[in-house]
Each structure stands twice: as C-alpha cells, then as structure tokens.
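Bit of a strange request maybe. I'm writing a small parser for structure token strings and I need a real example to test against, not something I typed by hand. Could someone generate the tokens for this chain?
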Amino acid sequence: MPRVWIKMHLHQELFDETNRWLPLETGGMLLGYKDINHDIIITNLIDSGPEAVHKKKSFIPDGNYQQSELNKIYKESNSITTYLGDWHSHPLDHAYMSWLDRKTIKKIAKTETAREPNPIFIIIGTLLTEAKCWKYNKKKYKNIELLEIKLFI
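Reply from user aminoacidic:
Good idea to test on real output. This should exercise your parser:
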C-alpha cells in the first residue's frame, strides 16, 4: 500500500489555512510526484485562491488562479511536480469522506485534463485536529482507500 509523504511545513500550512477560515470550509490543490515505490510525495500546495467562495459546508475554489499557479509550478519543476489531488477542511467535523467528496474525487479521476486517474484527497477535520488522506482507485471494489500520511523535512 503506498504512503503519502508531505513536508512538515506544508502539513502545518493545511491546519493554519483551515484555522484561518473557521468556521467556513477551505481547501486547495496538492502537488508533487509519485516515486518508484508508488509512494506519493507532496511538495507544494496551492490555496483556494483570492476569488474562492467559502461556506460552512462547502467551498468553490478560484479555478483560474489555481490553474495559473499549477502551470507555473509545473514549468519551474521541469514537468516533475504535478497535480496529485485536492485538500479541504471539514469545519467542526471529522476528516471523513462525505457523499459529495466521493462524487468529486470520482469526477476528478474521470477528467482527462486533470491527468490523474487515481487522485488523493486530504481532509482536515477540526473536531480532533486530524488529517486523513483518501485515494480513489478505480481498480478496487470500494474505489476509495485510506492512505497513511508520513511527514518529512
């Protein structure tokens, strides 16, 4: 089973951004690469963007901003750092996959321009200050699996 590796300061940024928007939901993009062991390495985050809409149970990212940032990071990394999936918060709740999260991750997997058939979601729950990473896997019966998150410097 692959693991998800995330830089310590980026892991902290997820919680900082979550707390900044409480009691509203926020989120963004996860960028990085997959290594030869199929582990997922998160090296960059893109926030929700200046025109994002934040609500208590959802948020709509600023897609133009996020795409522009993704293009810039991808180019600067010589096409190594790429889109892996999304992250978002569940204000005053747990880090579970809601029905909307399941629908969204499946939609991303089927979107050719995302170029990620098995995207991940990191969900930040604020009741227990928890982070969980979920991966869509179209080859598995239940499609969504929980991955272990590991921190690195």
